[in-house]
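DM from R.C. (forwarded with permission)

"hey, sorry to bug you on a friday — could you get me a structure for this? deadline for the figure draft is monday and I only need the backbone to look sensible"
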Amino acid sequence: MSDPIATDPNAGADSTPESTAKPPVRIFLVVVDESPELQLALRYACLRARKSGGKVALLYVIEPGEVQQWLALENLMREEQRAEAEQKLQKLARDVNRLTGTLPALYVREGNRRDEVLALIDEEPSISILVLAAGVDPEGPGPLISYFTNRGLAKMRIPLTIVPGGIGIDALDAIT
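My reply, with the result:
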């Protein structure tokens, strides 16, 4: 999908002094999955984007399936997964628009989720903050948070915001 957000902060800039130049728009990246914590990360990103004049970007990663023996079946499954990803992103885009008044950038990628998050961050200089919400399961906060707070942190060029999974909507609204 193409990025509806201008990524060049100098596009259309004239020779005005830096003190009067607008700062680049902050882009809050949210990774879309099926976890209940997604709604917390999305709401936090939307509220912060709205209050800071920023935008939201949504990334859906289709992870490779284990059935790779039959190419025709694999292609059909991939098409179905992509259609599901696009449907989910469109629904979430309406939520983002309702909360921020702007449309988000939408990305669909195939591969390992953490690798694709890092690749998108490297490819899109406009992305300025990664927002994730922690899971409340006894197994831990979730695979992305576990990775990015350990080995993956050194690979990040942007800040990571972790929304506590146990926070209520009212408390979330109060801190944003």
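R.C.: lifesaver. Residues 137-175 form one domain.
me: no worries. Residues 66 and 74 are 9 Å apart (CA to CA).
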